[in-house]
Amino acid sequence: MMYNDNMSDAKYNLPNLDQLSDKASSIYMSLGEEFISSNEGKFIAIEIESGDYFLGETREEAVAKAKQKYPSKIIFIRRIGVVEKLQQHSAPFNYSGGYSHACVF
After folding, report:
1. Could you list the residue range(s) of the whole structural domain that residue 46 is in?
2. What angle do CA 99, 90, 28 make, to 5 degrees?
3. What is the pLDDT of residue 20?
4. For every residue of the chain, which 3-state class applies, written as one string?
5. What residues contact 78, with CB distance under 8 A and at least 6 apart?
6. Considering its fold, how many domains does the chain have in total?
7. Would 12 be classed as within a structural domain?
8. Closest CA to 12 of 21, 23, 3, 20
9. Is 36 exposed, middle or buried (0-12, 13-18, 19+ CB in 10 A)?
10. What is the pLDDT of residue 19?
11. Of 43, 49, 68, 103, which is most buried, counting CB atoms within 10 Å of its CB?
12. In this structure, is residue 3 part of a structural domain?
């Protein structure tokens, strides 16, 4: 089923992806600059309720590690350091939010 903005999250029992993304981003940022710079380019999968995270050289590796421990939880995934670098450069690339991450159910 395709997500439609007109659908009520509660009516369809869907998670509020904005809230989940905000919480995952908060966990990611709490890891600090040293963590981000020393793991730049890797993928991080975050289990949002526990705050546990898993690293991988590929998206699939990070998700597999997370799903091994949390098979039925929502996993937030992003590439470490990439968005921060894009935000530093205003031209010619204009980053305005977009999809820097994904949720895996």
Report:
1. 17-104
2. 40
3. 86
4. CCCCCCCCCCCCCCCCHHHHHHHHHHHHHHCHHHHHHHCCCCEEEEECCCCCEEEECCHHHHHHHHHHHCCCCCEEEEECCHHHHHHHCCCCCCCCCCCCEEEEC
5. 24, 28, 43, 44, 100, 101, 102
6. 1
7. no
8. 3
9. middle
10. 86
11. 43
12. no
Q: What is the mean pLDDT of each run of 10 residues along the chain (105 residues)?
A: 48 74 91 93 94 95 96 91 54 39 55
Contacts with 50 (C-beta within 8 Å, 6 or more apart), sequence order: 70
- Whether residue 21 lies inside any domain: the answer is yes
- Residue 69 domain-assigned? yes
